[in-house]
Amino acid sequence: MDTHHLLISGSIDTEVILPDIAYMRTYIANVCFVGDPVSGHWMLVDTGVATCGDDIKKYADARFGRPPIHILLTHGHFDHVGNVIALADYWDVPIYAHKNELPFLTGQQDYPPGDSTVGGGIMAVVAPMYPHKAIDLQNRIHPLPADGIIPEMDEWRYILTPGHTPGHISLLRDRDKVLIAGDAFITVKQESALAVMQQEKEIHGPPTYFTPDWDTAKDSIVRLAKLPIALAITGHGVPMSGEELTEGLQLLAQNFDSQAIPEQGRYVNEKE
């Protein structure tokens, strides 16, 4: 079954958020193009759903005219690494991820399977069909420095935000308080196909069907909610900013147990 096209078609949309940040929605997941189009110094954050590689290449080549310095992965779930091998080979560039994510990116360990019992919509129901096996990026993949530095991107730092996966990271630029959150939190109810198709904007915790460690996910949200974030681009949904973002993230942190954690589920029950 082609899960990439199971529910959503024709959803390749790109928007420039700031002069040096654009994002593309690849069916159900976003990728970010971060860097100055004039200098051509840029990085790609995540690589979206498989079959969207040509769209990413065409947009990047038109916007920057040269390869990225590297590809940076917030984590290794299928909808964030769907084109990583093809793009890294096409541009001949390295790939970076947190060291805790490397077992899933070097063929050593599979992710837990998707949980269809969390409820909330058809996207959750079909979650067990989503790919969850490890991929092997071989000598392309490198661990990020332990001190939060992102190589060759001086204004940006990463924050370890595990829970959704062990090595999940979010990216922060302190000068303008821009956050690329990955799936630490998202701005759409990802379990609902209708919400995803319509891109209904509201803050949610990480996708429930693919989050196995809720205690750690909560800790990550509490940490992010303490930061002065002006704009957030998430792995699913549309960008959010201002008071809507600040209040929504605070409420999510305060009410995480009732707002983010499903009432039932394979990984909720394992916790109990």
TrEMBL record:
Keywords: Hydrolase. The keyword Transferase does not apply. InterPro entries: Metallo-B-lactamas, NDM-1-like, RibonucZ/Hydroxyglut_hydro. It comes from the Bacteria. SMART domains: Lactamase_B. Residues 28-236 form the Metallo-beta-lactamase domain. It catalyses: 3',5'-cyclic UMP + H2O = UMP + H(+); 3',5'-cyclic CMP + H2O = CMP + H(+). GO terms for molecular function: hydrolase activity. Pfam families: Lactamase_B (PF00753). Counteracts the endogenous Pycsar antiviral defense system. Phosphodiesterase that enables metal-dependent hydrolysis of host cyclic nucleotide Pycsar defense signals such as cCMP and cUMP. This is MBL fold metallo-hydrolase. It comes from Paenibacillus crassostreae.
